[in-house]
């Protein structure tokens, strides 16, 4: 018995009260297309949607098949790149002419035989007609082989290999390129460096919100910045004339003061540091509160990084080198207890082990962060704004609390910046605990005091 259209939702989903077709894109094409292709049917009737959907499904599947034959993996593109390399390496005019002759012969083979003819409107002469798809492939091959076009992602693997960024940032680079290529596909723009000029970049920026529904301008701007970084890399290597993405950002709504993330209050600090949780969570929170350090650098500490009276934190964000922070006197017992019986290369927090998968986008602190969030909520420290994904209070609120307390203790702004790793000029603390800058930093750290806490042991 046939399926009734009254309840058939195959290839359909309801969005904003209207039905639309949705088709999953094979994983091997995710570098060229979104993970799903969607197209609205402009009807709220499921029965009508089922009558309209099949031609749309066929069109979207054809788009998927078309994408399968494109990109760097396509045979004719690989052939074109090989011929372009041979032309570049040619040692004489004769060798170059021979390669060009072979190039056009290959193009003729790719174009295939004539399938008919038409009359040229201007000359009245018959003109051969070729299979349109084969003619397009032949044209792409010739343009690539002659160096007239450069696939937009040709140098992307080399660019990615040059990066020293977190896996999540690398994933942003890959997504940005995927969205750009998908946009080229949908808009009929040649996915080449030559075709992506300033005007095309602006068009892509304007289309990006509709391509990735549900993502905020803040997130979408990350993708625009990653494309800008790629173009900067290309510009330095004379692959493009200029960075067409420079200064392109989507407007981000200003957050009201009551929506911005904030420091913990002293009352919240007391709740957090006296609640019932594990000893390693209590240790983690105290180090966060008395250093202003981010959670990931704390979790990644080795025993060797906590000697001679200072922490040595690995670079984060835009830091270019490890950062030195004096160990607060209140943290000394914690460091001694956690270091006892361990070798210098042992983890200070073995409870949170490194991520096993080499290609994982998760930071080592992923589980620690989730556990802290669950604990924070359990003790009643939560400040959610409707519609915002993140609460106004999170582990970073320890960092804000530390800065607030240091400022209220009249510590110099540039010393606070040095302690927490904010951008500063003309200053470094040095690796060891001797020297005036480290002593100033130590005074800054010691000026921050936890609120009065009752004795509390972790489980």
From TrEMBL:
InterPro entries according to UniProt: DNA_brk_join_enz (IPR011010), DUF6538 (IPR046668), Integrase-like_cat_sf (IPR013762), Integrase_catalytic (IPR002104), Integrase_recombinase_N (IPR010998), Tyrosine_recombinase_XerCD (IPR050090)
This protein's record includes keyword Oxidoreductase: no
Family: Belongs to the 'phage' integrase family.
Superkingdom in the source lineage: Bacteria
Residues covered by the Tyr recombinase domain: 259-446
This protein's record includes keyword Kinase: no
Source organism of this protein record: Pannonibacter anstelovis
Pfam family, one: DUF6538
Protein name: DUF6538 domain-containing protein
